[in-house]
User: What shape does this take?
Amino acid sequence: MALNLRSSATGQPSMSTMRKTALVAGILYLATFLSSIPAVFLQGAVFNDPNFILGGGGSDTLVRFGALLDIVNGLTAIGTAVALYSVVKRQHEGLAIGFVSSRLFEAATLFIGIVSVFAIVTLRHTGATGADPATLITIQRSLLAVRDWSFVLGTGVPALNAFLLGWLMYRSRLVPRAIPVLGLIGAPLFTSWIIGYIFGITEGGSAWHAIAVAPIFFWELSLGLWMTFKGFRKDAPLMVEAATEAAEAASLVDSASVTRSSIGVPAKAGVA
Assistant: This one.
């Protein structure tokens, strides 16, 4: 009760709240992997079959389910930022706001690609009823181009996320510093690949792409695992501060109890 009273009064998270925050954020980070990786394979038919929109091989249901998993991926990405904001803002509020904003931009960009996939699936039924095949194939290619670019830019935002959250985690020491170092290394590498892709110098799946994405992949995976199973480090300055606030809260509540118990008790008369 003391911790809750203090947290409500100051607006700062208590020790127990910070552990719950780490758990929620960690689970959400892991959920991004559990949703995004299967989504690629489930939507393989629409990506690999140029005649998918004409009723070619592949199941509509699997493609729709894959797109649904991409929606889950976008929402969990936002959730990670929302969950961590109350903690990392104590290190640097400006960077914390930037992290939340970048996650929102990432999800919004990914949703453009998701809508493109749903549009192809919808038009597939039109193709089966006799619409011009050449036109439909051109539409599929156009929508896939939109999807590809939205995912390049949307999944490229983690480079900015890695820099913002990586710096916050490195400075705050909420997790072992080796973890955010991966993000700080990956941020410029992945940014370089995105620039190369924009100018047509490289493609997805290239060696450059693999080298650039690897640190980001392991940064987010290790961060999610650590926060889920370990929580924040208790010797981190922010955690020490939370522990101090908890002790002060207990002291304040004890003092308030003593004060209330003394109300109405007459003082002893002095000796004449």
